């Protein structure tokens, strides 16, 4: 279980992550934080 796909735009400084239902939004945020990046806003759909 995990990430199904992702898309990153360096130009727009955005990322979209499509994940399996078992992967929580909080886990995705924690994983992004481990890379040293900051999430300024986001949402979970589903």
From TrEMBL:
InterPro entries: HMA_dom, HMA_dom_sf. This is HMA domain-containing protein. Pfam families: HMA. GO terms for molecular function: metal ion binding. It comes from the Eukaryota. Residues 1-40 form the HMA domain.
């Amino acid at each position: 279980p995990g990430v199904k796909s992702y898309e990153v735009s360096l130009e727009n400084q955005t990322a979209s992550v499509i994940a399996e239902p078992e992967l929580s939004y909080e886990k995705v945020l924690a994983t992004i934080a481990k890379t040293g990046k900051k999430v300024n806003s986001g949402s979970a759909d589903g």
